[in-house]
Amino acid sequence: MPQSPQIHGSILERIGGTPLIELRALVPRTSARVLVKIESENPTGSMKDRMALAMIEAAERDGRLKSGGTVVEYTGGSTGVSLALICGVKGYPLHIVTSDAFSLEKRDHMRALGAELTLVKSADGGMDEALTRDMIEAAHRIQERTGGFLTDQLNNADQLSAYHTMGEEIWRQTDGRVDAFVQSVGTAASVRGVAEYLREKNPGVHVVAVEPSESAVLSGRETGSHKIEGVGAGFVVPLWDSGAVKEIATVSTAEAKEMARRLARTEALFAGTSTGANVIAALKVAERLGPDATIVTVMCDSGIKYLSTDLYKGA
């Protein structure tokens, strides 16, 4: 019997195709329209489902990952959860290196999907260059011991194709009316990939990269510790391409958290801290460009991933 088009053969078929929602309460009438790409509608509640699938499928195609093979990755959490989903469907054992600096929900989610976790202790519960490099080193040791495939997200350009697709979705959903795109920088693949697609369509699109003000290395400042999960590795990441962006905005952890709480209260968008940083930067660009422009930014993940943290406790 042929399968109904409403019945999917795998949860992986639900990755991508996320909606755009227009902000109302937070945007003054004199500012540009601000649209948010609701990536929390991906299966694990994160945009990282896109890149995890792209990295695994590219490795399958070229033989780096064979049937029965093992996958290894270092992660702040969301990429690990996404890889756990992909590997669970495809039957690959997964070893994840993560840290107590990242939310308990992410760690529990990875374990629930079958991943084996190695925890690297942080110095003060924050993300910084030393923690990132310690996690990378631990992942390499596991890869050498297991002979597994290291997805190596900070160096893996295979993920760019996933964000070209995201850019195509944004272009199509807005009928080509995009004046600016704003996105925080983790691996740098999302801001770069979306920017490459949008600027190919319209070279005038203003692309803004967002980073933590406590560790504004892309802006040429000193590395430091911050608590905006999933962004700000503490050094200039290999996939960063300054030519893909027109502007770099900095947002503090405190500002990002408060905006995430405001988003929940005023727009009913329940998101993580990186989304708060995105919206702060997007609102500033919207004020500059005025009411005839359209700004697109990203709801990177769901606030459900942060309920054990101080982000929403007592909010």
General description of the model:
The chain is an alpha/beta fold and 315 residues long. The chain folds into 2 domains: 11-41 and 163-306, Rossmann fold; 48-150, Rossmann fold (3-Layer(aba) Sandwich). It is built from 8 helices and 10 strands. The chain has a 6-stranded mixed beta sheet with strand order 1-2-10-7-8-9, with helices on both faces. Strands 5-4-3-6 form a 4-stranded parallel beta sheet, with helices on both faces. The mean pLDDT is 96.
CATH class of the largest domain: Alpha Beta
Distance between the termini: 51 Å
User: What is the annotated CATH architecture of the largest domain?
Assistant: 3-Layer(aba) Sandwich
Count of separate structural domains: 2
Radius of gyration, whole Å: 19 Å
**In percent terms, what proportion of residues is strand?**
15-25%
| Class by SSE composition | alpha/beta
Describe the sheet with the most strands.
Answer: 6 strands, mixed
Count of helix runs: 8
**Overall form:** globular
Number of strands: 10
Sum up the structure in keywords.
315 residues; alpha/beta; Rossmann fold; 2 domains; 4-stranded parallel β-sheet; 10 strands
Précis, in short:
The chain is of the alpha/beta class.
SSE layout:
Layout: E1 20-22, E2 33-38, H1 48-62, E3 71-74, H2 78-90, E4 94-99, H3 104-112, E5 116-120, H4 129-146, E6 149-150, H5 160-173, E7 180-184, H6 189-201, E8 206-212, E9 247-251, H7 253-267, H8 273-289, E10 294-299
Helix pairs in contact: 1-2, 1-5, 2-3, 5-6, 7-8
